[in-house]
Amino acid sequence: RVEDVSKDSRHYGQIDAQSGFVTRSILCVPLRAPRIVLGPDRGDVEPRIIGGAQALNKRGGTFNEEDVELFEMFASQAATALQISRLYTGMQRLFDDTIKIIANLSDARDPYTSGHSARVSQFAVAIAEELGWKETYQVRVGGILHDIGKIGVPDAILNKRDRLTEEEFERMKQHPTIGYNAMRHSHAMATHLPMVLPAILEHHVRADGGGYPAERVGPEVSKVGQIVHVADVFDALTSTGRPYRSAIPPEEALAFIRRGSGTEFDPECVEAFCRAWEKGKIKLQ
Ligand SMILES: [Fe+2]
Ligand SMILES: [Fe+2]
Question: Cα of 76 to ligand 2 centre, how many Å?
Fold first, then answer.
């Protein structure tokens, strides 16, 4: 507690000189984060000082003992909220990193799809934004995880240099269902990120009801599946591609997607994708 900073050598006057603000009195208290119990497995987060809170220039006088007590109470609540928010952010980063690692591992198994999941995710978010979606996090996660079921497709099929036989293609076509089945038992996923499931299961479903898996075709097809479908096809066409099908220039891929509007692709998603492209939101790496 400093009643008059002009008489206190600890006050750095340059701050006031630069900002034009005149500091008269100061009240500082530590932000003491309490112990936070995470559960039997994770243990506790120890109590510690995570920063400080500062009040300046009390109106009509100087800070007194009562102000200190009041401000300490305020700082204690703020410290608790900050610490919980830090923990939440940490867990969120852990989740984001984990799904990226899983997707990278899945992409790495298929030598022709390096970086595919990340690009599809980025394109899908751009489409969702153009559709006016306020919340695009689920689309981002859905894009990253959409091909996760390829983990269940044998290497001999993923790495095959020639065209797949009908039987092999049938096996490949199971990847949305494999991914969906792996995820659908997660209660947390279904509760907090429900769109991720249809993004995985329906990303090869066409707008006209074709595509696969067969049991998910028809008018009930989800928008998120259609968003990821457009993003997926664009990346498949423009990235290095399979040995039997080389990459095509983005303008040609865009024309292909435009031609498929209303048949293979959902017209609104096509429009949104074209707008995103024109705005430079679709970045090919
Ligand atoms: Fe796929
Ligand atoms: Fe894909």
Answer: 48
Per residue in 236-278, pLDDT (tens digit) is 999 875 666 678 899 999 999 999 999 999 999 999 999 999 9
- Does the pLDDT of residue 217 top 60, yes or no? no
- Centroid of ligand 1 to alpha carbon of 188 (angstroms): 23
Considering the chain, tell me which residue range(s) the CATH 3.30.450.40 domain(s) occupy: 5-87
Q: What is the DSSP string of 104-165?
A: HHHHHHSTT-TTHHHHHHHHHHHHHHHTT-S--HHHHHHHHHTTGGGGGS-HHHHT-SSPPP
pLDDT value at position 111? 67
The CATH fold of domain 110-278: Hypothetical protein af1432 (1.10.3210)
Q: From ligand 2's centre to the CA of 133, what distance in Å?
A: 22
Residues of the chain with CATH 1.10.3210.10: 110-278
Q: Which ligand is nearest to the CA of 177?
A: 1
- Strands 48-56 and 26-33, by their bridges, are antiparallel
Span from the CA of 51 to the centroid of ligand 2 (angstroms): 45
Class of domain 5-87 (CATH, top level): alpha beta
